[in-house]
Design brief:
Layout: H1 20-40, H2 44-47, E1 50-58, E2 66-67, H3 68-78, E3 85-93, E4 97-104, E5 109-117, E6 120-129
Length: 130
């Protein structure tokens, strides 16, 4: 079930707005590429969606934060995830971010906060509960 919010205008004429459908598509693509990377071991296409200046955090693990695509790539190379995920829902946050709930395929749930600049992921924060 998707939570619907309007993202048509944020009151500024200077900032481009990412429509909700675009945020949903970016989120779905992120999860699809993540799952493919876990299944194949090839993180290249997934990592290519991160901006050079991206930041990745884990709220409940003693990892990171990781600054920049290089550190993020090193983190995935050093400790690759072993589980895939399925989206449960999403909520738009501002005009460029989402908070999404997910379920690990092996069990347990979590939340992610993702923020994009155009179609590049600039921020990813993950918390899980088992």
């Amino acid at each position: 079930m998707w939570t619907k919010h309007s993202t048509r205008s944020n009151g500024s004429d200077n900032l481009p707005i990412v429509a909700e459908a675009d945020l949903r598509a970016l989120l779905e693509r992120h999860v699809e590429l993540f799952n493919e990377a876990v299944d194949t071991g090839d993180y290249g296409p997934y990592l290519a969606t991160f901006a050079e200046r991206a930041v990745m955090r884990f709220d409940d693990l003693p990892l990171g934060p990781f600054h920049g695509r290089g550190q993020i790539a090193d983190a995935y190379a050093t400790r690759p995830p072993t589980d895939t995920m399925a989206l449960i829902d999403m909520e738009e946050i501002g005009g460029d971010g989402v908070k999404a709930s997910f379920e690990w395929d092996a069990g347990g749930t979590g939340q992610m906060y993702l923020r994009w600049d155009a179609d590049e992921l600039v921020e990813l924060s993950i918390s899980s509960s088992i």
